[in-house]
Amino acid sequence: MPVLVMKFGGTSVATLDRIRRAAKRVGVEVSKGYDVIVIVSAMSGETNKLVGMVEETSPFFDAREYDAVVSSGENVTAGLMALTLQEMDVPARSWQGWQVPLKTNSAHSSARIEEIPTDNISRKFGEGMKVAVVAGFQGISPEGRITTLGRGGSDTTAVAFAAAFGAERCDIYTDVDGVYTTDPRICEKARKLDKIAFEEMLELASLGAKVLQTRSVELAMRYKVRLRVLSSFEEQSDAAGTLVCDEEDIMESKVVAGVAHSRDEAKMTLVSVADRPGIAAAIFGPLAEAGVNVDMIVQNISEEGRTDMTFSLPINQITRAEKALNAAKDSGSVNFHGLVTDDRVSKVSVVGIGMRSAAGVASKMFKVLSDEGINIKVITTSEIKISVLIDRKYMELAVQALHDAFELEKEG
Amino acid sequence: MPVLVMKFGGTSVATLDRIRRAAKRVGVEVSKGYDVIVIVSAMSGETNKLVGMVEETSPFFDAREYDAVVSSGENVTAGLMALTLQEMDVPARSWQGWQVPLKTNSAHSSARIEEIPTDNISRKFGEGMKVAVVAGFQGISPEGRITTLGRGGSDTTAVAFAAAFGAERCDIYTDVDGVYTTDPRICEKARKLDKIAFEEMLELASLGAKVLQTRSVELAMRYKVRLRVLSSFEEQSDAAGTLVCDEEDIMESKVVAGVAHSRDEAKMTLVSVADRPGIAAAIFGPLAEAGVNVDMIVQNISEEGRTDMTFSLPINQITRAEKALNAAKDSGSVNFHGLVTDDRVSKVSVVGIGMRSAAGVASKMFKVLSDEGINIKVITTSEIKISVLIDRKYMELAVQALHDAFELEKEG
Questions:
Q1: Contacting A residues, span 111-140, partner chain B, CB-CB under 8 Å
Q2: Contacts A–B by Cβ distance under 8 A
Q3: What gap in Å lies between CA A49 and CA A45, rounded to an integer?
Q4: Which residues bind ATP per the record (chains A, B) (predicted)?
Q5: How does strand B169-174 pair with strand B3-8?
Q6: A54, B80: Cβ pair inside 8 Å?
Q7: How confident is the model at residue A239 (pLDDT cuts 50, 70, 90)?
Q8: What is the ipTM of this complex?
Q9: Model's pTM, two decimal places?
C-alpha cells in the first residue's frame, strides 16, 4: 500500500470535535487505499501551559526535564486520535516517540532526528492496521531520555516520517489554506499558490510567512518529500492547498513567486569603526553570543581607515545588542564612535526561483519603491531573493505596490 | 545509603507551590542521609480531565490508548518535581514508568506489577544523584505499551518500589494526617492512631476509610514494607502520621482498633428461593458478571425446601442487580417468589487484630446497639472484624456509641 503522512497542528486538534473532524479526513485517505501515518501536535494551548509551569518552576531549567514535561501534550492527542479513529472503525493505534523509536541526538529541546526505524509500524500495517498515530515533536536520546525537536517540531517529525517511509506525500493540515503570494491581511489581491518550490518556501518561511517550520522545509528539500499545506477547517479536494515541491515539478514558474515582509525590524549602525581585518568577527561574535539574530549586514567604506557597519535585527533584541556592543567596546576589542539605532523599520522582500534566469528584477523593485516615494535604507540580495529595509510606515504600501507590479494576482 | 520512598498524592502536588512544599520535605529526608525515591501522582484534577476526554471520545475505549492518555498527568508532575528539587540544589531526575522500566502484565487499566529492576536507579544513586522522581500509576507491558495500575495505583507503585529497593520505610503523603479510630466527621472523639497492623488497615481500607488503596496495603503486608501515612500540609516530625506495620511491631494492641462505616449500602432479599446445591452460584454468578459488588451474604433456612437469600451491595448498583436477577429468573436458572430491596441501610464495623484472642467483642457490640434501640438487619464476621447492616438513620449514632463503648478515644 502507498503511504501517506498527514500532520495536524495544535489548532486542528484543539478540541475533541476538531480531532473528530481531522479523523474524518484521515478516514477519507484510508478509503482511497493509503496506509496513513498521522502526526499530531498537542491540543492548542497545552504546550504553552506546560512550558509556563516549567519556567515558573525553574528559570534555568534542566532541558532533559523540560522535554519530559512538555512532550506530554502530544501523547494525549495521539491517544485521543487513535481512539477517535477506532470509533470510526478505522484500525489505528498510537505511538509515542520512544515507542517508534524516533532516535535523536542528545541536544535536548532542539534535538536533531538521527533515525526512524520503520519495521515496527510497517509490520502493523502488514497486520491490517490502517493508521499509525504518532506523537509529534518528540524522540528519544541515545541515553534513553525523552527529547523534543524545538517548537514547531511536529512539522519536522512529519517530513522525517514521510522520508523514512517513502511516503507519496506529506500533508500538513493547519489553520490557513495554503501559501499565498503575500500576506492577505496586507494585500487583498493576495492569491493562493497551487505550487511553490522548496527554495522559495524556505525564503518565505524564514521571512515570516509562518506556515511551515523552516527545518521541515529543508528536510523535505533534502529528501524530496512532496509537502502539501492545507486547511483542516475546509472540505478538501486532492488539489487543495499548496504543494511545496521540487523546482522541476513546477512547469512554468513566474519570476517572482511572492512578496514577504517582516514588520518589527530594527537597524543599528556602528559609526566610525576601525576598518581592519577581523573587525566583522569582533562585532558579530559578541552579538551571536548574546543571542542576537543579526539578519542583513552592510558595510560602507568611509575614509581614513574607518568605516560604518550597519545591520538589522528583531526589534525586541535592541537592548541585548546594545549591551553586547558596549561591553565589547569597554573590553577594547571593538572601537566605534557612536551607535545609532532606528527602531522604526521593516523588511520587504521579493522571492522567486525565476530570478536566477531573469535580469532586471532588482531594478524593477527599486523603481516601484521609488515611484511610491519610499526610501531604501539597506539592500541585500541572494540568488532568489531581494530584500530591502524601509520605514515601517511604508511597509503595507510597498507590499501592495510590489504585488501589483509583478502581477502576482494573476495565475502562473 | 538507606533508601526511603516518599509518595505524594494529587492534592499534595496540585499546584507549583505545593510541589515546592513537597520537595522541601524530600530535601529534609535527603539531609538525613537517605537516598530518596519519590513517587508522584498527577496534579489533582488532571487525571479526571484526561479520563473525561477519553470517555467522551470513545465510550467503549481501547484500554491501551486509555492508558497512553491518562498516564501523561504523572509524567508532568515527575518532571516538575525533579526541576523543583534541582532548584533547591538537590541532585534529582525523573523517570517515567517505561524508563525504569516498571514491568507489568498486559491487563491494561488495572495492570499488576511484575518486576522493578533496580540497577538503573541504583547506579544513579551511586553516581551522586540523591532523588529519583518516578511517575506513579504507570508501567510498561511485555508488548512495550504503556499500562496503568488502576485508580490510586500510585500508592501501589510506591510500595512496590519500597519492596524492590529494600527501603527503610514508605511514606505516603496525603491530605489527612493519619489513620483514625473512626471518621472524625462523624465522631468528634476520633483519635489518630500511631500504629495500625496491616490486617486492620486492610479491613478499614476496604470498608471505606479511603486513606490507602487496598492493593498497596496487601503488597506492603506481603513484602513487610513499613508504610507511613501522613499529611503533606503540616510540619512533620519523624513520629508523625500513622505507621502501618506488622502485627509484631505493635507492642500492646487494643482489642478494637477502629470503627468503620459505609453509608450508601443497600440490602436485597430473594424471597423463597429453591434451596438446592448450586443455588448460590446460580444467583451470584450472574451478579458478578453484571459487575455488582456483593458484600455481605446471609442465607436463612426457611421451610419446605425453600430459603430466603439476602445480600448487600452498593446503592448505585441496585438497578444493575435487579436486571441481572430478573434475567436469571427469566432464563430459568433461578427461581424466586419475590425481590425485596431496602436502599436505606448502612454498614458499621468494628475492626481489631486483638479480637482473635479476646472473646465477647461481638456480644458487646450487639448490646451497645441494642441499648441504643438500633435493630441489626444482617451480621457478618471475620477473624478481626464484625460488620452489621443497620438503618441508615442510625449510622452516626452507632459509630459514636461503639467508639465510646470500646474506649477508642483513649491511647493504646
A1: none
A2: 103
A3: 6
A4: 7-10, 174-175, 180, 185, 210-211
A5: parallel
A6: yes
A7: low
A8: 0.81
A9: 0.83
